[in-house]
Amino acid sequence: MTPDITAAVAAAFRDEWGQVVATLIRVTGDWDLAEECAQDAFALALERWARDGIPRRPGAWLTTTARNRATDRLRREVVGAAKLREVARMELADDGDDDAGSGVRDDRLRLIFTCCHPALPFDARVALTLRTLAGLTTAEIARAFLVPEPTMAQRLVRAKRKIQHAGIPYRVPPAHLLPERTGSVLGVLYLLFNEGYAATAGADLVRLSLSAEAIRLARVLARLMPDEPEVRGLLALMLLHHARRDGRLDDNGDLVTLEYQDRSRWDAAAIAEGVEVLDAALRLGRPGAYQVQAAIAACHATAATAAGTDWSEIALLYRRLAQLVPSPVVELNRAVAVGMADGPAAGLALVDRLAADGVLAGYHLLPATRADLLRRLDRTHEAAAAYREALELATTDTERRYLTRRLAETTTFA
Predict the structure, then answer these.
(1) Within 13 Å, how many C-alpha atoms sit on residue 10's CB side?
(2) Reduced to 3 states, what is the DSSP secondary structure of residue 194?
């Protein structure tokens, strides 16, 4: 197997998995069958592409192969008229009709709304979408939720059974039912974006295809719900974060913090679009958590230099965000902003309060933040101990390399 073929199949998996699975779920109605046949198609690609060459449209090849595999499976397992109808349905439903009342034909968006049905618990909605749409492994999703892998596996099984037994339809709901699922859909998209923007574990900090997919789906959702400000707010937030993607890692793949990023590498067009989308959301006059987060991101993205960042404004925005979405992670981010606006001692006081509460135990960014504030206060021995603690908790190779460098610098100057 040549490296080029392996890389091509890996790239196709990142880009096409969600579309292949979503299409198979639509035409078969069987979630497990869809995943199994999609996996078979990608395995077959390793063999066939090495022999025949990489197809011009890898996604179409994979979808056709997976559909053929599903057809064969159903024909072998046919028991009575019901299974025969499923096969006929597969052969006829090439593109599908518009969803009644919504006009949306995107299979991946249909999949998100199905996964986000209010009959499912929220964590199951997110987990199921990440598994079926993004192709994350059960282990990756378990790490994102900070639960054991067997627990997450059972959660996914229960969610699929619930969809099957409750007869939850595979469609975007009519317009009058959209509001009850909007929060769940936005939560799924943001978690999908974050898994691409800052992977929970593994060798790569950034998985651009996941972030790009989340942004694409957010655009579709914004067209579907043009008067919903939080949809626009989330789209703006993702655009503004994604604009910095090329500055977050150096040529060696190592993490570059915001303070030291080369701002000429940021995507100016994406920043301009993000600010425009945010302004449109704010004009609707119903501010929400995603809009506030987008405003924070805009403060960073529009500052000409790190020194020119309006940290006082960011601290105020985090205070507002904490009122909308009480969260220890939000409070930790506010502590960083306060530490930049009012000095490291002020930020450290807030961090120490969070540490004393124990609500962020095991979260590596708590000791990492504390270490940085201690370093700025020249309390190097304490900073080194905090960096060591963060290093033990970090889950990606990129973050571990960054913390190792910081620890070495702190120890050198101690």
Answers:
(1) 8
(2) helix
Tokens for 61? 């090849």
Residue in the block written with tokens 């201690």: 374
CB atoms within 10 A of CB 108: 19
- Count of residues in the chain: 414
**Phi-psi region at 376: left, alpha or beta (left = phi > 0; alpha = psi -120 to 50):** alpha
Domains in the chain (CATH in brackets) are 3-92 (1.10.1740)
Taking alpha carbons only, the member of 192, 230, 19 closest to residue 105 is 19
pLDDT, residue 262, reads 93
* Tokens found for residue 28: 């078969």
Nearest to 226 by CA among 273, 160, 265, 175: 175
Quick one: CA torsion of 13, 27, 139, 14, rounded to 10 degrees? 20
Distance CA 254, CA 248 (A): 8
Q: What is the mean pLDDT of each run of 10 residues along the chain (414 residues)?
A: 84 86 86 91 92 92 94 73 54 49 66 83 82 80 78 90 80 72 86 71 52 85 87 97 89 84 95 98 96 98 95 98 94 97 97 94 95 96 96 88 92 67
pLDDT (0 to 100) of residue 139: 84
